[in-house]
Amino acid sequence: MEVTEAVAIDHGLKKEEFSKICELLKRIPNLTELAIFSAMWNEHCSYKSSRKHLKKMHTKGKQVIQGPGENAGIIDIGDDDAIVFKIESHNHPSFIEPYQGAATGVGGIMRDVFTMGARPIANLNSIHFGSPQHKKTRNLLRGVVKGIGGYGNCIGVPTIAGQTTFDESYNGNILVNAMTLGLVNKNKIFYSKAAGLNKPVIYVGSKTGRDGIHGASMASATFDDKIEEKKPTVQVGDPFTEKLLLEACLELMADNSIIAIQDMGAAGLTSSSVEMASKGNLGIELNLSEVPCREEKMTPYEIMLSESQERMLIVLEKGKEEHAKKIFDKWNLDFAVIGRTTDTKKIELIFDYKKVAEIPINLLAENAPIYDRPWKKTKLPQKLKFDKDEFKSLKLSDCLKKILSNSNISDKKWIWDQYDHTVMGDTIQKPGGDAGVVRVHGTNKAVAASVDSSALYCFSHPLTGGKQIVSESYRNLISVGAKPIAITNCLNFGNPEKEKNMGEFVECVEGITEASKYLDFPVVSGNVSFYNETKDKGIKPTPTIGGIGLISDYQKMLTMDFKTEGNLVYVIGKTDGHLDQSIFARELLNEKKGPPPTVNLFNEKNIGETVLDLSRKNLIVSCHDVSLGGILTALSKMCIKGKKGIKINSLKGLTNKYEYFFGEDQARYIVEIPKASLKKVNDILNKYSVHFDELGTVNGQSIVYKDDINLPIEDLADAHKYWLKKYMDS
Amino acid sequence: MRSSVIIFPGSNCDRDMDVALKKFGFKNQMVWHNDQSIPKSDLIVLPGGFSYGDYLRCGSIASKSKIIKSVIDFANSGGLVLGICNGFQILTETGLLNGILQQNKFLNFICSNVFIKVKDKQNKYFRDLKKDILELHIAHNEGNYFCSDDELKSLEDNNQIAVTYCGEDGAENEATNPNGAIKNIAGIFNKNKNVLGMMPHPERMIDKYLSGEDGSLFFKNILDNFK
């Protein structure tokens, strides 16, 4: 086929980009070369719209071993232990084919982690679906959950936490973000940077097939009516092979045979080989006739673009080929020497004894286009004036029940029962808490992880929303007694070529950066997913934050369930009663306007550190952060989980009980305090000058507040627990 | 007491089982599926996971693996063979245990704590166990035990039903049956009661920070009975 501008456009390149390629190459590329450019220059691989802004992120910290730019980020957790972690999107494929899309999302992120020498120890996910009333939602949800479970359960890595939301803006673009944590010895980390000349380049894992060709380009475009036609671009996962690949790689990593290793993810062999050579400032020569293929007569074009799963590229020390092959043979995996490193600084492809492509590496990597796209600021919406007389017709207890059964608040047990969350025998906090917690095997340490996003806040005011999600992640970790260490982010947005969407991205990133800097909570890895748009309708901006924290003695881990009758319950942090953008406003007043709650980073940090101090001194016995749905919602969850009630005090100076109980002000925690610790707790709270309310006492089997609320825990549990199950069964 | 845990490609509870056995004092060793023989053992464990990917009927490929002949010989000579989850599926596929494990009734993978009732204590696994009801953990997609009427009658007549799903109070009914298993069966013995297959995972419940610690009772009891 002759390469023309039209062919280039079919490959997702822009007209100007094609001219630039010809200019850089000083000739017209052949079809294979064009394919390589299209794979490397698309949004998904090149970050061309986002790179300028991502550079500003706060990525350094005392415990950071590896920041963004590698397969995953790495943090030091002491005693030579390090945690490798990253979150990644698999949105586009999951909408087209939910089971395989979600499954391969999980597979891909696990490979990113074990590529670095780490054994995966926990998975998390953040999944977002259209309105529950939308005809596709139920099947997409079912497929995605089965896909995530199907892959993670088979590999034998526990899924310890997650987040699921519903919003009509995801009707045509669901989001599937998967996160993995791995444990590695910090002296035995493997990187993707090739080094040394004439070193053998090894292909291991599954065979290459025709699946997933153009996957990365597909993920770099918006959807239209013909989206069903894109099914062949979705990869097919084989978790069994991945399990073998994991074990084989870790076995080979036990000695010093590997110079560099990189998984074949988006844009498969193309991006893995180019990245390794680029980082090592080397050339690479690949003989594509040696690539193990699943199908007959595959062309160089297909081999280079295939996104078949469960494959790795390794640069090996010379002479270690036999040793490595033995290990991969033992695990029944393909092993082939397919090339070598060179000093040409080019990627050169041989097929059938002929050279079929030759491109200088720097044209694919450093010379890839970078765009400074125009963007628009989002103005802070004016604060609403609620008609408080209107509230009076609403009974507090009815409001509470309605909120507890809201699709975004209700219990997600139906989902996490389908994920193996206890395999590996170290899960000490299961899904459904503020964060999942796994022990670092054989030590007293434990790692906490949570995923958070707040699309409604980010949509209303991206800058505040960006700060809020980082703060929320920080609070969730503190709520289980963990010191927050670092985050990974998955930035899901609409079309960057639209000023509004680009503005949402820029300002969310700004908010994330500001908060992560202030809270000393650096970003160490992440990914950007643009073009979450169907027929001109984009998603609400949905940056997802995956936070990691450390509990140095796991016996001090906190959970949210109320423990003992008679214990006192405090709300730490001040409640002003911010109802704009709250679940209460949406669900009961049908009011969707107004600004999100203000984020005061000084308070977040000060109050967070206060609570952490209380937990380390064993002065509190349960803890839960107050977020969506406000104080009453948070309290209800603590009651339901602990199967205990609370008697709420008559609160002095309360301006409005609806605002107090359902307001979504930030930087607040509810804690349970044994009477014997009370004085010490008060002293610490005063020392940090932290505002707190004496909310009530753990008592009986009901939530009781004056004459307004008297709700048995069982009723609350009924409202909370069954929405999703009923929805899926109907 | 010496134990061996067989690792099939795709096993994923092998390490957990190794950790649990060693914690309670077993001298455990790991045995690779392609090995010809098993080192001298008092107990052989087939762990949970997805042996060979379980892309055919669960456990069917493992039941034809190289090592399995040694397992069958060991069982037939009276040795203790314990299959957990995928291990139970493999044992039914080898014919050492009757019946099969079908997909769960509600077609979903289930990961959850369950209560099981010990139905027979005249064996080396449960003899003198202090509790009759244990809280253990299940995590499977194919745990729905099924067998023919004749086989069921024979299991009942010979007291081969080892454990059944029940409520905290011991109630065995539809509500306490997580996967649709016939007669709430969670685990069975062979005729001689040296081979035990069960879906619940005792190795995941071995200290108080986990979902519970009734798994400890199970392992300690096997050791106590061996002494």
Describe the protein.
The complex is a heterodimer of chains A (730) and B (227). With 730 residues, chain A is an alpha+beta fold. Helix content of chain A is 35%, strand content 23%. Chain A has 27 helices and 28 strands. In chain A, helix 20 links the parallel strand 17 and strand 18. The radius of gyration of chain A is 26 Å and the shape is globular. The two termini of chain A are 52 Å apart. The model of chain A has no long low-confidence stretch (mean pLDDT 93). Chain B has 227 residues and is an alpha/beta fold. A nine-stranded mixed sheet of chain B has the order 2-1-3-4-11-10-9-6-7, sandwiched between helices. A two-stranded antiparallel ribbon of chain B has the order 5-8. In chain B, strand 3 (43-46), helix 2 (68-76) and strand 4 (80-84) form a beta-alpha-beta unit. Classes of the chains: A alpha+beta (730), B alpha/beta (227). At the A-B interface, helix 8 and helix 10 of A face helix 1 and strand 6 of B.
The overall pLDDT of chain B, averaged over residues, is 95
Poorly predicted regions of chain B? none
Q: How many H/I helices of chain B?
A: 5
Whole-number mean pLDDT of chain A: 93
Distance between the termini of chain B: 8 Å
Kindly identify the CATH topology of chain B.
Answer: Rossmann fold
- Helix share bin of chain A: 25-40%
- For the termini of chain A, the CA-CA separation is 52 Å
Hey, roughly how much beta strand do the residues of chain A contain?
A: 15-25%
Q: Any idea what the radius of gyration of chain B is?
A: 16 Å
What does the largest sheet of chain A look like? 7 strands, mixed
Number of helices of chain A: 27
Structural class estimated from helices and strands of chain B: alpha/beta
Please summarize what this structure is.
Chain A is of the alpha+beta class and about 725 residues long.
